[in-house]
């Protein structure tokens, strides 16, 4: 049985949980690339208290422009490892058709490419067969004068 999107999201929400953390280092301002794209989230070092009471640190994706010591929210998986926030139901509803269309397009391209390779190979075999037949019967077609 294939889980429905709502069930998958609920399972991710169950497996992942948010935890309050403290930003150990300041996040720089928004970074721009040469093409003008702006990144408003950067990886930064954070510190949090695990469920067993020990202090843990790691790098998580944070909004840029925050100062060290700021309180932030991070997401942990069932093993207590940093992970990403699970998608919301509306985001998943938007992503699912896009991923499905992408998969269908990729499968179609793969099928088309396999067909073209098979067609090319069959043509090559046919040309080789014609060459062998021409080598056998071509000399018999010489000029005859009677």
From TrEMBL:
It comes from the Bacteria. PANTHER family: MEMBRANE PROTEIN RV1733C-RELATED. This is Uncharacterized protein. It comes from Streptomyces albiflavescens.
